[in-house]
Amino acid sequence: MLPKWAKWHPDQRVLSQKCTGLLEWAGWEVKFNHCFREANQVADFLANLGCEGSVGVTIHSSPPIGVGEALYADSLGVFWPTH
Description:
46% helix; mainly alpha
């Protein structure tokens, strides 16, 4: 179940509920935590990369160019404002 504060796009809500249902069915405990994209540059980078591609699943045999820099910045706790 999503927290009351979660105001997601309807498509995201359906997807998150389906994922939660599958994980709970497998016996996992599921929790959602919010993290601003400015504080998680790797996730933001990969999400933006996914928006540029076609619909479906993409499997990378190695990290895409740019992920290493974002990972290093995240490990240092670097915060990048978006505006």
